[in-house]
C-alpha cells in the first residue's frame, strides 16, 4: 500500500511541475511558501515543490523503505550471480576434463598405433638405404 502511495505522490509532484513549467497557476491548495530565491516566480514555485507534504513523504519513503529494498535486491542479485558463476565454473571444469580424456583416447588409439606403424616402416627403409649406400665404393679413383 505504501508503494502505491509513493507513486501517487510522485505523479502528483510531476503533474505540479509540468503545470508550473507550462505556465499554469500554482496547482496546489497551499501557497508558495519558499522565500524568494529568484525574481522569477516560476523558479520560486519549482523550489516550493520540495516543501510540500507529498515531497516530504516521497523523501521519507525513499530514505526508509526503497533504499532498504534496493539494497536487498542488489544483495540477492549478487548472490545469484555468484551461484551462477560457481555453477558455470563447475561446467567448464567438467568440459575441460572431458577434453583431456578425448585427447588421451585419441593418443592411445589413433596416434600411438600410427607412429608405431610409421616407425617400423622407417626402420626397414633405413636398413635398405644403408645397404644401398655400402654397395658403392667409397675409395677415391685415380685421376687420369
Number of helices: 3
Mean pLDDT: 81
Radius of gyration: 43 Å
H/E series: HHH
Portion of residues in beta strands equals: under 5%
Portion of residues in helices?
over 70%
Overall tally of structural domains: 1
Shape: rod-shaped
Please characterize this protein's 3D structure.
The structure is a single chain. This protein is mostly helical and 144 residues long. It is 78% helix and 0% strand. The protein has one domain (2-130). The protein has three helices and no strands. The termini are far apart. The mean pLDDT is 81.
Give the helix/strand layout.
Layout: H1 2-22, H2 41-48, H3 53-135
Helix pairs in contact: 1-3
Write a concise keyword list for the protein shown above.
144 residues; rod-shaped; mainly alpha
In short, what is this structure?
The chain has helices at residues 2-22, 41-48, 53-135.
Amino acid at each position: 500500500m505504501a508503494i502505491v502511495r509513493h507513486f501517487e505522490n510522485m505523479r502528483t509532484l510531476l503533474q505540479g511541475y509540468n503545470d508550473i513549467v507550462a505556465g499554469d497557476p500554482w496547482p496546489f491548495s497551499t501557497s508558495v511558501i519558499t522565500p524568494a530565491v529568484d525574481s522569477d516566480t516560476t523558479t520560486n514555485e519549482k523550489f516550493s515543490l520540495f516543501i510540500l507534504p507529498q515531497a516530504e513523504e516521497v523523501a521519507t519513503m525513499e530514505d526508509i523503505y526503497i533504499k532498504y529494498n534496493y539494497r536487498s535486491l542488489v544483495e540477492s542479485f549478487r548472490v545469484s550471480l555468484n551461484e551462477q558463476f560457481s555453477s558455470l565454473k563447475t561446467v567448464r571444469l567438467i568440459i575441460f576434463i572431458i577434453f583431456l580424456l578425448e585427447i588421451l583416447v585419441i593418443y592411445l588409439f589413433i596416434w600411438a598405433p600410427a607412429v608405431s606403424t610409421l616407425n617400423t616402416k622407417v626402420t626397414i627403409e633405413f636398413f635398405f638405404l644403408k645397404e644401398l649406400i655400402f654397395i658403392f665404393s667409397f675409395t677415391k679413383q685415380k685421376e687420369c
